[in-house]
Design goal:
This protein is an alpha/beta fold. Helix content is 32%, strand content 17%. It has a domain of 68 residues.
Length: 114
């Protein structure tokens, strides 16, 4: 059985048309941050306060692997020096993938029916 170029092209067009006619919503990045820096500059891991110099050690003892990305929740107006200190400690501890994230919020508005 041979498939001609025309049949392959038609199959490809139908497949693309089917894909482009459907919509889906994907919610990404729903992970809970592993490290949280509050507005007072205190650092928290699993609801326990941690000093800057012990972040990497605490994460390793909690079972995190060095290859994993570490999400760090920061306040809306973060302390940049504290962020640098946290990053430096993570790198010294072997964690090379860290991401500073802010709290996300979503609002929805419903219009009245006519």
């Amino acid at each position: 059985m041979t498939i001609s170029r025309r049949n392959i092209l038609l199959l490809l067009i139908f497949a693309l048309c089917g894909v482009s006619c459907t919509t889906s919503t994907v919610i990404q990045d729903t992970r809970v941050p592993e490290v949280e820096i509050d507005s007072a500059g205190q650092i928290w891991i699993h609801n326990q306060r941690v000093e800057v110099g012990k972040i990497g050690k605490t994460l390793r003892s909690a079972g995190f692997q060095r290859e994993q990305e570490v999400n760090i929740l920061i306040p809306n107006e973060p302390d940049r020096m504290l962020m640098k200190a946290v990053s430096a400690n993570l790198v010294r501890s072997g964690f090379t993938r860290s991401a500073f994230v802010k709290a996300k919020s979503a609002t929805s508005t419903t219009l009245p029916a006519k």
